[in-house]
Amino acid sequence: MRERRILPQLPALARRIDAATPAGRDRTVDALRALAVLGVVLGHWLVTALVADTGTVHGASPLAAIPQLAPISWMFQTLAVFFLVGGYVAAQGYAAARARGTRYRDWAAARMLRLFRPVAALLLTWVCVCAAMLAAGVRVDTVTTLLKLVLSPLWFLLVFAALTAATPLVTRLHPLWPLAVVLHVDLIRFGLDGPETLGLLNIGAGWLVPYCLGALWARGGFHPRSAGLVLLPCGALAAAALVLFAGYPASMVGVPGAAVSNLNPPTLAAVCFGLAQCGAALLLLEPLRRVLRRPLLWAGVALLNLSVMTVFLWHQTAMMAVTALGLLAGRPLPGLHTAPEGPGWVLARIGWLPVFACALLVCWAAYRTYEQRSGGGSTGRVVQQGAPGRKPVDDHA
Questions:
Q1: By C-alpha distance, which of 231, 230, 265, 228 is closest to 248?
Q2: Is residue 231 included in any domain, yes or no?
Q3: Distance, first Cα to last Cα, the chain
Q4: Chain Cα centroid distance, residue 80
Q5: Mean pLDDT of all residues belonging to the chain
Q6: How confident is the model at residue 26, as a pLDDT?
Q7: Is residue 7 one of the residues assigned to a domain?
Q8: pLDDT level of residue 313 (50, 70, 90 thresholds)
Q9: Which of 161, 199, 327, 353 lies deepest, with the highest CB count within 10 Å?
Q10: How many other C-beta atoms are found inside a 10 Å radius of the C-beta of residue 231?
């Protein structure tokens, strides 16, 4: 009976969110952010395996045993789009803050709070979880494996936070400059057998390319469709040439045991591929704009953006929770505890994705308030405070 009462309310809620959205808000920016985060979540769920073996759990990747699955990484390694949107939003938000007379330190502090309040909740929870596991006799190597999966996405947030803090400088920087840094670093590393530590420069420079591209977009430096028509084919051809003729890995994510990772640190191939993705995102703007006129679809995008950090931070925990509960079955379950060594594992893992999504929904219900309490940006104000006729500040934050 409760479900029957809730379902008819969804169209009404969607219409309310639609009516509360400022007329000048570019909904496509929120849609691109949502697609980028969902791509990362699905990608991690598909290429991350936890194998139960002789009382321990260790990590593995199907990309190591089945290299033909590399195209999965092409579809779901969408961080470049997230940085593109991040640069666009930060540049717009900072310009609006300056126009309102807001000091830089106040603007930056507000954005850092939105990023790191949910992180603090995650870390505090996992400190307690790790202590409980060790006290219960769980082996240290198993705890270490799980903790690495939880902490590994945080490197991205540190880079994103640093670029956000540097937004006043980034808005003056053309994306070709950090692209040139990535090119020269790779030439020295791979062409001249330079030190591997030099690759650390690409952690900042590699993600600065799409971030600067977003900032350039925000200040009207290019027409999105024209830029997309250039970036998509040129970036794709450059990435393909680097993989086919320069020895770069085909996978756009790290593969355990591989000599070179395209992602840690970002290589020229990964950056070129990211530019192709950014081009595709820019070409999607008009189709997305038409689709998002439908209140129900826009409401889904708005609600996801309200808790986008919660979804990103807790998706690995959701997968691990399902894996741990699956151990109660008394035997390894295909696609959940077994080694990812064949197509059967992939098919079984796809079947587990809805279960992971349900677990993530539980995590979202428990921890979303830590993100929404920090403001949630204008999307949050649309959803939380919006009503027909009320128009919150449109800062896309």
A1: 265
A2: yes
A3: 38
A4: 9
A5: 88
A6: 87
A7: no
A8: very high
A9: 199
A10: 23
Looking at residue 9, what is its pLDDT?
74
| Band of residue 82 on the pLDDT scale cut at 50, 70, 90 | very high
Q: Do 220 and 335 reside in the same domain of the chain?
A: no
Taking only the tens place, the pLDDT of each residue in 152-170 is 888 888 999 999 999 999 8
Distance of CA 190 to the CA centre of its chain: 28
Domain that residue 360 falls in: 308-383
- The Cα–Cα gap between 12 and 93 comes to 30
Mark whether 215 and 355 lie in a shared domain: no
297 with 286: CB under 8 angstroms? Answer: no
What residues form DSSP beta bridges with 266?
Answer: 263
Instruction: Read off the pLDDT of each residue in 205-215 and give the average, rounded to a whole number.
Output: 97
- The residue type found at 185 is V
Give yes or no: residues 194 and 232 share one domain: yes
Give 101-112 pLDDT, tens digit per residue. Answer: 999 999 999 999
**Would the pLDDT of 134 be above 60?**
yes
DSSP at 188: I
Return phi, psi of residue 57, to 5°.
Answer: -125, 125
- Residue 145, classified by CB atoms within 10 Å of its CB into exposed (0-12), middle (13-18) or buried (19+), is middle
- Which phi-psi region, left, alpha or beta, contains residue 228 (left: φ > 0; alpha: ψ -120 to 50)? alpha
Q: Is 327 exposed, middle or buried (0-12, 13-18, 19+ CB in 10 A)?
A: middle
Give the residue among 234, 259, 237, 257 at the shortest CA–CA distance from 248: 259
Instruction: Return left, alpha or beta for 377; rule: phi > 0 is left, psi -120 to 50 is alpha, else beta.
Output: left
Cβ atoms 368, 385 nearer than 8 A? no
- Stated pTM of the model: 0.90
Rounded distance between C-alpha atoms, residue 182 and residue 223, angstroms: 25
Supply the pLDDT for residue 23.
78
Residue 363 has which token pair? Answer: 């995590």
State how far the Cα of 197 lies from the Cα of 188, in Å rounded to an integer: 11
